């Protein structure tokens, strides 16, 4: 009878070599990092990001730049002045007479203020019956006040009120004067009959006076 079986020395050596190789492969697989992570590859974009990136480029802005606001200009003199006065119708350095100023206002269609008056000398004062200040006027009669071209006050004269009509005893209308100045024959009872006198013009003061 043969003795107990014993492994051969050659087989043990081969098994040992295979075990060492297998252990070495296992250690390599565990310690070696993944190639993609080691290379630091960037992450892949998502499908939505790829769609946006592949779309058409945004259109360029077509809004033109706004020009800078111009500096305010100084308002010119003369007719551009919104506040009208006599200098709007008189050139600088010019010294027109009062009749010339009134005529210029009338030429511009202005009939208020100074334009409400007629140029001096073109409408002389009317002469009529003087009316005392304390005389009580009956209905239909009025006082008319005037002044000379040089500013002198003239005594008031008696005139008929606008649209007033006198009638005679038979109730017939009496012809009325066109200028409405009361003649002596149509004066009210009790009025002293006296015509006014226009004062003479004032002489201009000479040098040194």
Helix content: 10-25%
Our measurement of the CA-to-CA distance between the termini, rounded to an integer number of angstroms, reads 182 Å
Number of helices: 4
| Strand order of the biggest β-sheet | 1-2
Secondary-structure element series? HHHHEE
β-strand number: 2
- Low-pLDDT stretches are 47-53, 74-79
Q: Could you tell me the strand content as a percent range?
A: 5-15%
What oligomeric state best describes the polypeptide chains here? single chain
Q: What does the secondary structure layout of this molecule look like, with pairings?
A:
Elements: H1 9-31, H2 35-38, H3 47-53, H4 98-107, E1 141-147, E2 153-160
Antiparallel strand pairs: 1-2
Structure, explained:
- The chain is α+β, with helices and mostly antiparallel strands and 209 residues long.
- Helix content is 21%, strand content 7%.
- The chain has helices spanning 9-31, 35-38, 47-53, 98-107; strands at 141-147, 153-160.
- The chain has a two-stranded antiparallel ribbon with strand order 1-2.
- A hairpin with a 5-residue loop joins β1 (141-147) and β2 (153-160).
- Residues 47-53 and 74-79 have low confidence and may be disordered.
What would a concise description of this structure say?
The chain is α+β, with helices and mostly antiparallel strands and 209 residues long. It has 4 helices and 2 strands, in the order H-H-H-H-E-E. The protein has helices at 9-31, 35-38, 47-53, 98-107, and strands at residues 141-147, 153-160.
């Amino acid at each position: 009878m043969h003795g107990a079986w014993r492994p051969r020395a050659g087989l043990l050596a081969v098994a040992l070599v295979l075990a060492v190789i297998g252990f070495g492969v296992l250690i390599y697989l565990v310690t070696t990092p993944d190639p993609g992570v080691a290379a630091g590859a960037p992450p892949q974009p998502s499908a939505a990001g790829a769609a946006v990136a592949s779309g058409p480029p945004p259109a360029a802005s077509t809004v033109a730049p706004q020009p800078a606001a111009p500096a305010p200009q100084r308002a010119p003199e003369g007719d551009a002045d919104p506040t009208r006065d006599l200098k709007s119708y008189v050139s600088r350095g010019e010294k027109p007479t009062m009749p010339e100023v009134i005529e210029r206002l009338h030429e511009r269609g202005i009939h208020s203020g100074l334009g409400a008056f007629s140029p001096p000398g073109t409408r002389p004062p009317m002469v009529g019956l003087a009316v005392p200040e304390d005389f009580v006027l009956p209905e239909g009669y009025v006082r008319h006040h005037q002044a000379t071209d040089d500013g002198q006050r003239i005594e008031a004269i008696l005139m008929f009120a606008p649209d007033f009509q006198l009638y005679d005893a038979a109730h017939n209308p009496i012809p009325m004067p066109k200028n409405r100045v009361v003649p002596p024959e149509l004066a009210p009872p009790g009025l002293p009959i006296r015509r006014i006198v226009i004062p003479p013009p004032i002489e201009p003061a000479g040098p040194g006076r």
